[in-house]
Amino acid sequence: MTGMTLTLRTNPNVHLDASLLGGQFASEPITEILQLRLPVIAGKHAMLVQDLFNVQPRTDDRVVIRGDLAHLHHIGNRWSTGKLFVEGNVGDGFASRLSGGEVHLHGNAGNKTAEQMRGGILHVIGNVGDDLGCPLHGRRSGMSGGTIHIVGNAGQYAGYRMRRGTMMIQGDCGPYLGCDIVAGTIITTGRIDRGLAVGMHRGTVIVPSGTSFSPLRFTPPESQRLSIASIIANDVEARLPNVAAALRSSISRSLGDMTCGGRGEIWIY
Q1: Which DSSP state fits 10?
Q2: What 3-state class would DSSP assign to 233?
Q3: Burial level of 103, CB count in 10 A (0-12/13-18/19+)?
Q4: Tens-digit pLDDT profile for the chain (269 aa)?
Q5: Largest CA distance in the chain
Q6: CA distance linking residue 115 with residue 132, whole number of Å
Q7: What is the rounded distance in angstroms from the CA atom of residue 40 to the CA atom of residue 55?
Q8: 34 near 25, Cβ under 8 Å?
Q9: String of b and e for 190-213 (b: at least 16 CB within 10 Å)?
Q10: Are strands 222-224 and 251-256 parallel, antiparallel or unpaired?
Q11: Which helix (H) or strand (E) segment is 55 a member of?
């Protein structure tokens, strides 16, 4: 993979499908990258990369994209290897179908960030919209592997139908966090709106004390010391040291959703 920096010099006044700025595009020669066509969403036209960006090679293997990219959607689509750094706000579907490598965003992202994620690492310093890690349209399962770390807030339905992996949200969450989760781990440090883990089948959602959830769907919390909590603490200590310390002490555990078999767990630290 060739390192390069793409700097936005012309802000498009239309919404573009930028999914070609993902996958293995950086392995192509810069002359070919400049000719990539980014289609206008719900339109018949396209814009060339060379009409939007200045593209410069780098001495390292990083791919860096800079600028106000809010009108560009699906940047980082199908990213599978190497490191992608995006500096600026992005549109919907950022890092969609991420399967490997690392994707870093310093800015805010729209809806459906990391939809259908299967592996790799996503690190966002900023807020994300609705449906973080959700399924692609028509699919039954959402995030199925990898690690998401959001240093900011998330909208509604974060972790919807999550099947595997770890999601950390260092901020507030909208309604229905962990809705219909099948497996995996979700950790949050901020306030959570209504509908926490509704429809939960299995998996673990870890929340701060004072978080409310339905007493009809979940058992009353009981104070416990869990060996698995120490393992999770080791995994998240570098990113969430305060949470890791809390997990190594006594936590409260609630089981649910009882309307779906009651095999999931909410941990309160």
Answers
A1: S
A2: helix
A3: buried
A4: 789 999 999 999 999 999 999 998 999 999 999 999 999 999 999 999 999 999 999 999 999 999 999 999 999 999 999 999 999 999 999 999 999 999 999 999 999 999 999 999 999 999 999 999 999 999 999 999 999 999 999 999 999 999 999 999 999 999 999 999 999 999 999 999 999 999 999 999 999 999 999 999 999 999 999 999 999 999 999 999 999 999 999 899 999 999 999 999 999 99
A5: 62
A6: 7
A7: 21
A8: no
A9: eebeebbbbbbbebbbbbbeebeb
A10: antiparallel
A11: strand 53-57
Q: Which two tokens stand for residue 18?
A: 């930028």
| Residue pointed to by tokens 């459906």 | 112
Give Cβ neighbours of residue 255 (< 8 Å, ≥ 6 apart). Answer: 218, 219, 262, 263, 264, 265, 266
Length of the chain: 269
Beta strands in 140-260 (DSSP E): 144-151, 164-169, 185-188, 204-207, 222-224, 251-256
Phi first, then psi: what are they for 87, rounded to 5°? -115, 100
User: The tokens of 93 are what?
Assistant: 């579907």
For residues 108 and 87, what is the distance between their CA atoms, to the nearest angstrom? 10
What do you get for the CA distance between the two ends of the chain, in Å? 43
Q: Residue 127's CB: how many other CB atoms inside 10 A?
A: 19
DSSP secondary structure of 85-108: EEES-B-TTTTTT--SSEEEEES-
